[in-house]
Amino acid sequence: xxxxxxxxxxxxxxxxxxxxxxxxxxxxxxxxxxxxxxxxxxxxxxxxxxxxxxxxxxxxxxxxxxxxxxxxxxxxxxxxxxxxxxxxxxxxxxxxxxxxxxxxxxxxxxxxxxxxxxxxxxxxxxxxxxxxxxxxxxxxxxxxxxxxxxxxxxxxxxxx
Length: 160
Description:
Elements: E1 5-7, H1 10-14, E2 20-23, E3 27-29, H2 31-41, H3 46-49, H4 51-55, H5 66-71, H6 73-80, E4 81-83, E5 86-98, E6 106-119, E7 124-134, E8 140-152
Parallel strand pairs: 1-4
Antiparallel strand pairs: 2-6, 3-6, 5-8, 6-7, 7-8
């Protein structure tokens, strides 16, 4: 089981720049997960739903849209990281590239690195680099960078 990482300050992030923050537990990409995601977006392409046609195609099975791996980063992050006394706001994607589709039934692993920490007038900004890897082949599925702004929580003392 992967250890949970607690981050509570800019210094915690700065000490990890250039390092892998975590490699996730395997995330299962089932046919049902793919189809629920696609249905929620109205992305009804045959290669996400038609098993017979997929079996006869170059895919061999139903495949996930590339955006599914990106959408799983948030939940996967918080399975491995606890933010203590920090507020966070996702502010953007620097880049995102899909290198190959994920097949139904595959397990994928997120490798997340702290790439850069910069000061802001209020708080600080972290750029993360990520790779999603196929669990068994260790082959890269998608890569990218995203940015999150952080602020220290302000303690509020209750007055009576």
